[in-house]
Amino acid sequence: MPEVITPLSIHITEKAAKKVMQFAAKEVKGDGFGLRVGVKGGGCSGLTYTLSVEPGPQEDDKIIEDQGIRLFVPKKSFVFLAGTELDFSDGLNGKGFTFNNPNAKSTCGCGTSFSV
Amino acid sequence: MQPTPLYDASKRLGAAYKDIAGWSVAESYGNAEQEYWVSQKHVGIADRSHLGRILAHGSDTLDLLNRLSTNVVDPLPVGRGASTVITTGKGRVLDWITMFHHNDDVLLITSPERTNVVIEWIDTYTFDENTTLKDVSRTTAMLCLLGPSSEAILVSLIGESISTLSTFECATVTWNGHEIIVARTNPVGQCGFDIVIPGDAAEDFWDSAMKLGVSPVGQDAMEGLRIKAKIPKWGYELTEEHNPLEVGLEGEISWTKGCYTGQEVVARLFNYQRIQRRLVALELPFNKPYQLGTPLIIDGQTAGYLTSISTLPDGETVTALALLRTGYVELGRTLTVGEAGGTIARVTSVPLI
Fold first, then answer.
1. The complex's ipTM?
2. What fold is seen in the domain B276-353?
3. How many Cβ atoms from other residues are within 10 Å of residue A15's Cβ?
4. What is the SS3 assignment for B18?
5. What is the pLDDT of residues B266-308, one digit of tens each?
6. What residues of B are in contact with residue A109 (Cβ under 8 Å)?
């Protein structure tokens, strides 16, 4: 039997998942809601992460379930995000949502942009 | 080499041609010096069809280009244009482009050698955005009417409405049943207009301008004007090795708009005064042979090198452009061209910031 290779997936920490639930409760997106995680062009290093709570996936989105949250990842973004962990840091020095992305060769000073 | 839509019209006027990025473009019509002067004193018409023209369509176009380049291009109201530098993540120049927002589209004008690079770059960084690009370089022509009488000529050809355009404003007008874009620009430092027109209408427009007494202007004269106006150009000053601050494009950078690709590097270089070289203009004696890339020497040290040299004199001198190491940039400074005992050049213009 050939070995089944699982592609690197996108993960969300428990802390980040809780924060997403809080946002979703405020925005009232319905039961099928999920967190859309993607990239867009621009930003200091070339690519910027995008995050939004959406009522459902768009066509061609990859759907990943982790920590009780559905993640919707646009097809073109997936290759840039494979293996990424989405975390949340709060408190006085907290940065909010943070991305630990093994694909990122460099990131900008504020952390919102990266290049591969 | 591909002929531009003005090839035949230029041939009838006795043009000699040169290859620019695979296009066969008129380099002169027999007297480049006269073409140089008529563009400054009266009115000339030049073929600029070898520059790239990309039609960008979609509601996210301006936002996307704003994130990929140095200047504020969003918002850009319909009827307005802007120039901006597309930079890499390391803050290096990918191309210096001009954009015009007309009707529902944004027309991007690129350097002739960089059209495909710009399209591929924007495509790579397009994810969910509602933006599509179409290369219209081969189906359209671009003409430039330049000189003090250019507005009067264009009013005769098109009508009074174009006289209300300020610099970098554009309008879509109908001429001979064709929809054309007219923009008030100064691509080589002379007041004038760029006209983008369907390829099969270009020769008629050119001939109509000729009948009003406009003189044809070739690329040799356009180069002389560009260098005199200290405007950098791809392949001469602009390369992927340099950032915009080094090559005379400091005026194309917004310091307040926030993130764009390469923003941190550009801001850091400026704030920490780490710009290694700057673009300057030089005055050189006329009638001597000069070569691009020749080093410029001060006290036995190489201070920089020549990047553009005009072949058309202003009096006894010609203008050249050079990249000089920042420590040597000073108005009025003299340098030796090439080896010791060579011609003396004098710095006549330095960056303002």
1. 0.78
2. Elongation Factor Tu (Ef-tu); domain 3 (2.40.30)
3. 14
4. strand
5. 999 999 999 999 999 999 999 889 999 999 999 999 999 999 9
6. 264
